[in-house]
Amino acid sequence: MIKENLAYVEEQITKACERSGRNREEVTLIAVSKTKPVSLVDEAIDNGIREFGENKVQEIMDKYDTVKAPVNWHMIGHLQRNKVKYIVDKVCLIHSVDSYRLAEMIDQEAAKKGVKCDILIEVNIAKEDTKYGVMEDEVIPLIEQISKLTNIRIKGLMTIAPFVEYSEKNRVHFRNLRNLYVDIKTKNIDNVDMKILSMGMTNDYVVAIEEGATMVRVGTGIFGQRN
Ligand SMILES: *Cc1c(COP(=O)(O)O)cnc(C)c1O
């Protein structure tokens, strides 16, 4: 099942890249394995996947210990400050930084572990009440502030677009995030290396790629429905 799902997703990614004149290598597929057992993670690994996304600290810790193959773990969910210490040296990228206080904690814990931590700023691009993430007009001031923390490297932006029936509806949000990303890149802020745009999930990753996503986070489309 996973093999077929991955083949389908891969084909969609390739076609979206072709349509938008992009190289397939510009887009990284992150398989979102949250709530799914390690047996399915292993199956995805057997089919060539090396990037996995999880939204809970405990689950990252468990899978980090259990999965034997060398893979990269991405923290994509809301992160509490008191849990940063458990994952700062286990994940390759934290996608969900949305406050200076959280960034400060990541910086401190990274220093203790002697690592540099790569992060993305989560943006609430559609201004939804129910979502985490910073509002568009707060992003640049926040990045300027976080850029002074020496154990953190800001790599880009992330968003979770609204749940919509037709993915076309999210195109405007992806485009807005891309524009913000380009604005920040142009500013050449010290210690900020904008190269990752993490946007698009099972329902809308094709549109996200057409609008410039460099990482897409696909769960259901690979592993099937979650309970
Ligand atoms: C669960 C989750 C995904 C994957 O969602 P699907 O719709 O199953 O593809 C992507 N990003 C984040 C932040 C998530 O929490």
Automatic annotation (TrEMBL):
CDD domains: PLPDE_III_YBL036c_like (cd00635). Residues 23-226 form the Alanine racemase N-terminal domain. Its cofactor is pyridoxal 5'-phosphate. Transmembrane segments: none annotated. It comes from the Bacteria. InterPro entries: Ala_racemase_N (IPR001608), PLP-binding_barrel (IPR029066), PyrdxlP_homeostasis (IPR011078). The modification N6-(pyridoxal phosphate)lysine is found at K34. GO terms for molecular function: pyridoxal phosphate binding. The keyword Transit peptide does not apply. Keywords: Pyridoxal phosphate. HAMAP family: PLP_homeostasis (MF_02087). Pyridoxal 5'-phosphate (PLP)-binding protein, which is involved in PLP homeostasis. NCBIfam families: YggS family pyridoxal phosphate-dependent enzyme. Belongs to the pyridoxal phosphate-binding protein YggS/PROSC family. This is Pyridoxal phosphate homeostasis protein. It comes from Anaerosporobacter mobilis DSM 15930.
